[in-house]
Design a protein that fits this description.
The complex is a heterotrimer of chains A (414), B (493) and C (120). Chain B is α+β, with helices and mostly antiparallel strands. Chain B has helices spanning 21-30, 69-79, 81-88, 104-120, 130-136, 156-169, 212-218, 238-241, 290-303, 355-371, 397-406, 422-429, 438-445, 457-468; strands spanning 10-17, 37-40, 57-58, 92-93, 97-101, 126-129, 144-148, 152-154, 173-175, 180-186, 189-194, 197-206, 227-236, 248-250, 263-265, 271-273, 278-279, 312-322, 335-338, 345-349, 413-415, 420-421, 488-489. Chain C has a five-stranded mixed sheet with strand order 8-5-6-10-9. Classes of the chains: A alpha/beta (414), B alpha+beta (493), C alpha+beta (120). Chains in contact: A-B, A-C, B-C. The A-C interface holds A 46, 49-51, 61-63, 65-66, 69, 147-151, 176-177, 195-196, 198-200, 204, 384-385, 390 and C 5-6, 8, 11-14, 32, 47, 49-54, 56, 62-64, 66-68, 75, 78, 82, 96, 114-116. Strand 11 of chain A pairs antiparallel with strand 23 of chain B.
């Protein structure tokens, strides 16, 4: 098998990969190859049939497939090369990419690799829910794929663990398709998903939401017959004698998304344990030269509009990188306030406009979030209410930034 | 009173009840001879109960009481396992094992284990110091250890499947979804009533594991009671797997009150933490419990500090068919008997650990009993070799390319985490035993066993099953009868 | 009567406290902008929603096409709309934006396809 030398290889043809490809071509980069393991482009958007996509970017409330189609059309019209039904099995630090498809085994050597593989779901095993292992336990994304893509109905009466957006969306979806959703249980004392989804997916259908609750046992030897739910204390431990039995034939788990970084790790890309995605600078370049990352593989997003913006910023940097690899300017760390779960990027070289994305760890009322370098406050934003479900972005123009000085993202309570 | 006029009467020379590892090993051994053999299995696949829910360790035999059948068959099984694993094309690695201790009391116990082992004929046992422990398994804590070079690890599910497939290859009939409900002694043997018809056979062998006492009672042997004793496990991510090259068990320290939680690498590179010990009421209650899962985590860390909650990818449980109650405690030896009142009924009860290791020697023992009563003529066309499903990701790049060229299904990666291709999934779906459950395909192909636990591949596998077997959504079963995975279509046609 | 709502117009998610009697809104408190007041009125008097679902496809590369409405409809009519969606079957090919049901349930909105499904 001969090795094919390519300029840019994009692993993943979902929103991040598509936006990056389109933006690169706009900059005049000719040799781009998208490798997508599904038969169709669009990534996770293919199964997100609800609306709410594109509100900021297109000023329209589109469904996931419609949003994806805009970018797929752009990529196709630009004649950007796409291979579908191909799975990347290896990625190396020297930017060798190995992939297999029905047509054979491929080996590529890329000048730049863009990681756009998205994320996967946390499983029942990972959170160790005790009990038996009957049929009828699904993560929300799988349930969504079965129902929306495969025309398969997974159950008739459901309980949902986790009030993240996917769980809420599935509560509505199941209800509209005639299933009975008995309740949503959230281990935190506040909902994980967006307020609009609480209203439109739960309140609208009188589906009760129980905060500070979790599923403590699963029952049924063949098909699920029910679950035990307990209240939890402030350390998330089940409180004894609060167990209640809920009869159901389906348990939907919406307990977290994890960036899919198997390939990244293989290539020696360093991950940030807070995001579980690669540590990057403002060029979205990882710790391995020439390997870049954007989208859910970098950190889990809530709005796809922002994924596209992030991928476009990445493309700008990749475009520059291809022309001449930048001088090894010192990257300084971005220090995140303890109230913040993380920041992306984690490192800054101060050689381009900077956008810092972050999330608060818990809901905060009346806070001011600012970026400082030494005693200089570069930017500040006020929030009446900041919640973990909504990613926060702060921009600083290049001129304001001082190379070599650490950046602090500070949260002040008013 | 059974209806002797029931249709579908099948006649065999030997009928085996139960297709766990012992029943399957026996089926294979019997197929070496010119005998008409059938296996009756109540579930939808082989290896559904105890045989598939254990640590997968091929024990050397130092944990068993000298002079017992357990000791004898365990040592024999361990010594001969390479040959069997090779013939059956299943994973086996003679990794050795460390039983670690921390103080003088532990040292005395280790010495006693060594002596018992030597009495049983276990080769190579030695007491080693902490430098050797650090050398063999740097992440394991311990001051001294008993090192057993003969101990190994295998995949117990693939072992049982391979035994069954080879038996079927060599002419044995396997009747899945046939639960034995009654047995009647007749002139030349037995009439066995099942949920799907009546069978007649000269010999009946009880390999019913958790339900062996019930089967024994069907012929009037009511001396035995199986006390189900559950063991829970944590399964750890492969990333941690590289830190444990061989099984490491602590010496049970009664003073500390711990259970002595075992750590065992699997042939796939995961680590098993467990099993615990809990007498339970229902024989197949495989529910895991919060308190035990927490206990496993706490205890496991005592000798394996890298253990942490984020390394757990799933949990499971197995149930031991113990012949001793909670109050009696300890072990009872294997019961392998042939009583004059129940001529030609070979009764096997209480085949808990080391049942997996001892399976083939037990089977040969059963055959020697049969051999006392009749001439066993060899089957000239017996082929001991069985081929497993080729693992694409373990092939060289050149071989991978030619495989894809021959069969493009090898180019389609279905299970991303484990690198399993569509060709392997289809081979699992087209398995020689005709098993159709999702779990059956998962266990044969290793798909869905990775860290995403089927997140990506489950849908594809379900689609392949429905297409290959031309079945509707409602008939896809997870594992047991009635474990419907889907309820229908969102939009019926 | 008194009701608290979370406004969903923009990410501020203002908590709106609405005082109303029958079909008369007496006061809306907590809105940072006038859209919030409008939203509160709509929500109390005649809440509207857009919904998304799937329609059966025959002869296509996929069994279902995802659909949504061209605009929100009264919340209380959601299941009427669903009944019409459930009963429908369309033949491939289907284009994005293709109207599959015009003026569904007489509510002034169409059901449109949101995905392209090619013919087999």
């Amino acid at each position: 098998m001969t090795t094919q030398n390519r300029s840019v290889i994009i692993i993943g043809g979902g929103p991040a990969g598509l936006a990056a490809a389109a933006a690169l071509r706009q900059q005049g980069v000719e040799d781009i190859l998208i490798l997508e393991r599904e038969h169709d482009l669009g990534g996770i958007l293919r199964q997100c049939i609800h609306d709410g996509f594109g509100l900021t970017r297109f000023k329209e409330a589109l469904s996931g497939p419609e949003y994806a189609a805009r970018f797929v059309d752009t990529v196709q019209q630009a004649g950007i090369e796409v291979m579908t039904d191909i799975t990347v099995t290896e990625l190396h630090a020297d930017r060798t990419v190995v992939a297999t498809a029905r047509s054979g085994r491929y080996v590529f050597k890329a000048q730049a690799v863009i990681l756009a593989m998205g994320c996967r779901e946390r499983t029942r095993g990972a959170i160790q829910i005790p009990g038996s292992r009957p049929a009828g336990v699904y993560t929300a994304g799988i349930a969504q794929a079965y129902m929306n893509l495969k025309n398969i109905m997974i159950g008739r009466s459901a309980v949902i663990l986790g009030s993240g957006d996917i769980g809420l969306i599935m509560a509505r979806r199941l209800t509209l398709e005639g299933a009975s959703v008995k309740g949503v249980f959230e281990i935190q004392p506040y909902p994980s998903g967006l307020p609009r989804n609480i209203t439109q997916c739960l309140d609208d259908y009188d589906i009760p939401l129980f905060l500070s609750h979790t599923v403590t046992a699963i029952h049924g030897t063949k098909r699920l017959t029910g679950v035990t739910v307990s209240q939890v204390d402030s350390s998330f431990r089940p409180i004894p004698d609060t167990e209640k039995e809920w009869t159901c034939d389906t348990l939907i788990l919406s307990v977290g998304l994890i960036p899919e970084n198997e390939l990244s790790k293989m290539a020696g890309v360093l991950l940030d344990p807070r995001t579980k995605g690669p540590r990057v600078d403002e060029h979205y370049q990882t710790s391995v030269a020439g390997i870049f990352a954007a989208g859910n593989v970098l950190h889990v997003h809530d709005l796809v509009d922002f994924v596209s913006l992030e991928a476009e910023r990445l493309a700008e940097s990749v475009g520059d990188y291809l022309k001449q690899a930048p001088a090894d300017e010192e990257a300084v760390p971005v220090e995140a306030d303890p109230e913040l779960a993380y920041t992306v990027p984690q490192l800054v070289r101060a050689d381009r406009d900077l956008t810092v994305s972050c999330r608060v760890r818990r809901p905060l009322n009346r806070v001011r979030i600012s970026i400082w370098q030494n005693d200089q406050k570069h930017v500040t934003r006020r929030f009446r209410r900041a919640i973990p479900a909504e990613m926060i972005h702060l921009t600083v123009p290049k001129e304001k930034l001082v190379p070599g000085e650490p950046l602090k993202v500070v949260v002040e309570h008013e | 009173m059974m209806n002797k006029q029931t249709a579908l009467q099948k006649r065999y020379d030997v009928l085996i009840i139960g297709s766990g590892v012992v029943g399957s090993a026996l089926a294979r051994e019997l197929s070496r001879y010119q005998l008409n053999v059938a296996v009756l299995e109540k579930e939808l696949d082989v290896c559904t109960e105890t045989s598939g829910r254990n640590s997968g360790v091929i024990h050397a035999g130092f944990n068993n009481k000298p002079g017992s059948l357990m000791a004898k068959f365990c040592v024999e099984g361990c010594l001969g396992y390479d040959v069997v694993a090779d013939e059956l094309d299943i994973p086996f690695s003679r990794t050795g094992k460390l039983v670690v201790g921390f103080d003088d009391e532990d040292r005395k116990k280790l010495q006693a284990l060594k002596e018992a082992g030597e009495q049983n004929g276990v080769p190579g046992l030695e007491i080693v110091e902490s430098d050797v422990i650090r050398d063999k398994a740097p992440a394991i804590l311990g001051e001294m250890a008993l090192y057993s070079p003969m101990t190994g690890i295998t995949n117990p599910f693939l072992y049982t499947v391979a035994l069954a497939e080879n038996a079927v290859q060599n002419g044995v009939s396997l009747w899945l979804n046939h639960e034995v409900t009654a047995i009647e002694q007749v002139d030349d043997g037995y009439q066995v009533q099942t949920t799907q018809g009546v069978f007649e056979s000269r010999w009946v062998i009880n390999c019913a594991g958790l339900f062996a006492d019930r089967v024994a009672r069907m012929v009037g042997i009511d001396d035995y009671t199986i006390y189900p004793c559950r063991g829970e496990y944590l399964v750890l991510d492969k990333e941690l797997g590289s830190q444990l090259p061989l099984p490491a068990y602590p010496v049970p320290n009664i003073r500390e009150g711990g259970l002595g939680i075992h750590l065992t690498p699997t042939t796939d590179g995961n680590i098993l933490v467990g099993p615990s010990t809990d007498y339970i009421d229902e024989h197949t209650d495989y529910g895991t419990t919060r308190s035990i899962l927490d206990l496993l985590m706490r205890e496991g860390r005592k000798i394996f500090p890298p253990l942490n909650p984020s390394a757990v990818i799933r949990t499971f449980a197995g149930v031991r068919p113990k012949l001793v109650s909670r109050t009696t405690g300890g072990y009872a030896d294997f019961v392998i008997e042939h009583r004059p009142e129940t001529r030609h009924f070979i009764n096997m009860v209480g085949l808990e650990s080391p049942g997996l290791t001892a399976a083939v020697p037990i089977a040969r023992n059963v055959i020697s009993i049969i051999g006392e009563y009749e001439d066993l003529r060899e089957n000239p066309s017996f082929n001991p070799c069985r081929e497993g499903i080729l693992s694409f990701k373990d092939q060289t790049p050149e071989r991978q390319e030619s495989l894809i060229h021959e069969n493009p299904d090898y180019g389609v990666v279905v299970c991303r985490c484990e690198g399993i291709t569509q060709a392997e999934i289809l081979a699992a779906i087209r398995n020689p035993l005709g098993v159709t459950t999702l779990s059956g395909i998962k266990n044969r192909s290793r798909a869905m066993m990775g860290r995403c636990q089927g997140g990506y591949c489950q849908i594809r596998i379900a689609e392949l099953i429905m297409a290959e077997q031309n079945r509707s959504e409602e008939s896809v079963m997870l594992a047991r009868k009635g474990s419907r995975t889907f309820v229908g279509k969102v939009r019926p046609s | 009567m008194n009701k608290t709502l979370t406004c969903v117009i923009c990410p501020n998610g203002c908590q709106l406290i609405v005082d109303y009697e029958g079909v008369t809104i007496q006061s809306v408190e907590g809105a940072l902008c006038s859209k919030g007041n409008q939203y509160a009125e709509q929500e109390i008097l005649d809440p509207k929603r857009n919904i998304a679902s799937s329609v059966r496809v025959t002869g296509g590369k996929a069994p279902l096409v995802s659909v949504r409405l061209t605009g929100p409809i009264p919340k209380k009519k959601i299941f009427d709309v669903m009944a019409e969606i459930r009963a429908l079957s369309v033949a491939a090919p289907v284009e994005i934006g293709q109207v599959l049901i015009t003026d569904v349930s007489g509510l002034g909105q169409d059901v449109i396809a949101t995905k392209r499904i090619d013919r087999i």
